[in-house]
Each structure stands twice: as C-alpha cells, then as structure tokens.
Amino acid sequence: MKGFEVNGISYDSMSEFCKKFGFSYNKMRRLCRIYERAKKDPAIAARWLLNLDKLNRNSEPKTFIYIQEKELNAARQVIFRARKKAKRKKKLAKIMGLR
User: Which residue in 3, 27, 32, 34 is a FRET match for 56, CA 20 to 30 A apart?
Assistant: First the structure.
C-alpha cells in the first residue's frame, strides 16, 4: 500500500494513521472498500474520519465490489430465511405429532 498525506503530515500506511488517531483500522478499510474515491486515495477516507470533509453516503459513488457483496448478502438472507422456515415447519409437525 502506498502512503498518503493528510494536512501536510505523511503516513506510510492506514494502520499507522489509525493508531495515531485511535480509529479502528477496519472502519477505515471499510470506507476504502465501499467508496470509489476513498479506494483511489485513502487520504479522503482519513479526512472523513477526522471530520475535515463531510461524507455524504447517498451521493458518493460505490465500488463494484460493494455492489456485488450487497447482492450476495441478499441471496444469503433468502437461503437463511428458507432454512429457518423449514426448521419451524419440522418442529411444528413434531409437536403436533404428524411425524
């Protein structure tokens, strides 16, 4: 990972930045993974975390990876709910003495 600069101070990595300011590394990584501009330049994500720039979640363009993950999560939810429904049916049938 290349370094970046925020307010004239150079940081070698996101980890170094997060340790200095006490932010969660995963929070910054998530911003870089979700938003297109932050993916290209981690300094933008750093400025969002420091509240130097305002993050407008609705107008920021999302990355393709984020959109794919969102679709995959929706598919997993459908499978999970179907399994849960099947278990409930099986449990109800057992209670009612149908099996």
Answer: 3
- Residue pLDDT, tens place only, 25-43: 999 999 999 999 999 999 9
The SS3 assignment for 14 reads helix
pTM over 0.90: no
For residue 86, give the H/E element and its range. Answer: helix 64-96
Helix (H, G, I), strand (E, B) or coil at 24: coil
Residues 6+ apart with CB under 8 A from 3: 10, 11, 12, 13
Asked whether 32 and 42 are in contact (CB, 8 A), the reply is yes
